[in-house]
Design brief:
2 copies of one chain form a homodimer. Chain A is of the alpha+beta class and about 375 residues long. Chain A folds into 2 domains: about 260 residues, L-amino peptidase D-ALA esterase/amidase, CATH 3.60.70; about 120 residues, Roll (Ubiquitin-like (UB roll)), CATH 3.10.20.340. Helices cover about 30% and strands about 25% of the residues of chain A. Chain A has 10 helices and 15 strands. A 6-stranded mixed sheet of chain A has the order 13-12-11-14-10-15. A 5-stranded mixed sheet of chain A has the order 3-9-8-7-6, sandwiched between helices. At the A-B interface, helix 8, helix 9, strand 13 and helix 10 of A face helix 8, helix 9, strand 13 and helix 10 of B.
Chain lengths: ~375, ~375
């Protein structure tokens, strides 16, 4: 049920002509209250798209009433005309909904550099059709409208005692956040203050979306938005809410990983025994970004030497001769030397587990990534995106 | 003529059974004097192979008489047995040449984790055969013996008034140094002191090998060694020598780029208008490591948005709305927005020029990289290396 699973939210997905295929490409999500709490995290890429620049201002006061999202164009590096388009998009939605433009978040995804007059006209038409189509059952169609090279719509719902969190996500390439990630909208009917929503969102993204690193490429348009309306009438325990939000975010991150462009393996890199969580993340990310390791996994080759070579490029504390590496449960490297033979490792399943024990401390972190495949190269060379 | 182009050097390449193909796999380069000056730079990967650990000690006193190199096994992460193998290799060469083992540099390349007793026996046999085969015409065969997935042997010679520099290099994947790179041996009959040799080598590698970033993966075995014997009897002007060495290093780096695994484009990324040279390098390297940009070039797609997205992940000074980008001479992006249409750019030639103007200063840097292709994925997934 996506973003309309919690009480008091309506959504819609409509086809506005942005996608040449004629598929849905504009989504609208509206919070019907009673509260209009909003929080968001954004890409840390310094080249930020116009909808990011707009939305950063919108969320500052902790109030968000609606989110308009489009696929079929990133409206990034489109200058002041592009910023005006994001502004006009919010104004159009606000006018039709009888709310303030300053409470409307805008998200765009697609080819960078796309954002001309045709793009603007299609988006504004989409807002009009989307607002008309709003419904409490509209979550799934909204999730479909934000897809780009995604092969499936990605939604998740977590329910607790009397309150619910719903979410939708898109993302298939450029999955390497720093602070935020992809386009994600999360709704809840739990009763939260703006600072509670912000804190819970940052905490949840920090260990979920932020640790998904499919291809090392950071997007200009990533945004995760949380809307909370208190419609359930229940103020959850902050810890319970944070845990539920982290669970939902983790589920969506996993779905993004499983649908990453061209991937044939979903690789979970667990780093153990690190001196600090930051160092565990640094090590996991370095391995996740090593093309030679990623290509080896595509070839079902348990090439642990490439893992150690990647660890060696980090600043993390470790002794190259006291590192253990497991692949799918088989210890292929112990104390920095060969252990079990490569023939013992079965890398044919799509789900791949890599465990690295640095043996210098007790900190851990898990990074999600994918292999480097012919299909990844094909999708990202044959089509502009 | 490779490393035997200068006077007073002998070399050989022999087949010692390390390569299953039976091709040459051990090379020996000997400096016959009169002077035995040596300098080297090494990989900055903290996971260093045993031959690196050995050779770092050898070059400390500025004296090197011989270099033994093998392909067919990296002798990395092979523990104390592997270190002993590097030591025994130097001792064997020293005994046969009547010199000190402490003046013999050892270099290995091939699969990480390879370095068992069979490997040791083959290398020691290779040293014996190699020393027997030493000749003043042996440079080309030595260059052939260090090839791994290289498709051509890489050599270069630069001659000036009465003195000569010769070099050989191997490298086809894992080309992303930090301080040193690949296996390279450079010889000269110019008369240099050890500190002059060291300074000239660091200066030359800093702007050549160090700025080749084929696939973002840093090797555990990279080493560039310079041997100088003064056999020409000429003490060159330090500036003239540094310039000649940089020219030769640049030629070898270009050959490494042109033979990078699976590449279909050799991309020269020139960053202009940076606040500092370090920032220009950071920007160039960030673009060079962006898989989406690299895949786009493979697909002959002038996707400048991916260039700007990569710049946005750096800490370099720039205004996203005041950046210009040229591809093969066509300005595709000006002031952070679309300029000439993508149809105007012809990316079909193998040599590809990307120019980025950050417009904040006067510093420049050039990074050499390659595209991300199906063949790269194939070579690095189908074979362990």
């Amino acid at each position: 049920m996506s973003v309309t699973a919690p009480q008091g939210f309506e959504a819609a997905g409509v086809a506005a002509g942005l996608k040449s295929t004629g598929k849905p490409d504009v989504a609208v999500v509206v919070n019907r209250g009673p509260r209009k709490v909003g929080a968001a995290v954004f890409t840390s890429n310094r080249a930020k798209a116009n909808p990011i620049l707009w939305s950063q201002e919108v969320v500052k006061d902790g109030t968000v009433e609606a989110v308009v999202l489009n696929s079929g164009g990133a409206n990034c590096f489109t200058g002041s005309f592009g910023f005006q388009t994001s502004h006009l998009t919010a104004e159009k939605a606000a006018e039709l909904l009888g709310i303030s433009a300053g409470d409307v978040v805008v998200c765009s995804t697609g080819l960078i550099g796309t954002g001309d007059e045709t793009f603007r006209r299609h988006v504004l038409d989409g807002v009009e059709a989307g607002v008309r189509a709003l419904s409490v059952d509209g979550g799934p169609s909204a999730a479909e409208a934000i897809m780009t090279t995604d092969t499936v719509a990605k939604t998740a719902v977590v329910s607790r005692d009397g309150w619910t969190i719903g979410g939708m996500a898109k993302g298939a390439g450029m999955l390497a956040p720093g602070l935020a990630t992809m386009l994600v909208v999360i709704t809840t009917d739990a009763d939260l203050d703006a600072d509670e929503a912000d804190a819970a969102l940052r905490r949840a993204t920090g260990t979920t979306f932020d640790r998904l690193d499919s291809d090392g490429c950071m997007s200009t348009n990533d945004q995760v938005t949380l809307l909370a309306n208190g419609a359930s009438g229940i103020r959850p325990d902050p810890e319970a809410f944070a845990a539920a939000l982290a669970q939902l975010s983790g589920e969506l991150a996993k779905k993004l990983q499983q649908d990453a462009e061209g991937a044939s393996h979903d690789i979970t890199i667990e780093v153990r025994g690190a001196a600090s969580e930051d160092e565990a993340v640094e090590v996991g990310r370095s391995v996740a970004r090593n093309n030679l390791f990623k290509a080896a996994i595509f070839g079902n080759d348990p090439n642990w030497g490439r893992v150690l070579a990647a660890i060696g490029t980090t600043s993390a504390q470790f002794d190259p001769y006291d590192v253990d590496v497991w692949m799918n449960g088989v210890r292929v490297c112990s104390a920095g030397g060969p252990d079990r033979p490569r023939e013992d490792v079965d890398l044919s399943p799509r789900a791949t587990d890599l465990v690295i024990d640095l043996k210098v401390g007790t900190a851990t972190a898990t990074i999600l990534t994918n292999d480097l495949t012919h299909d990844y190269v094909h999708e990202n060379s044959a089509y502009s995106s």
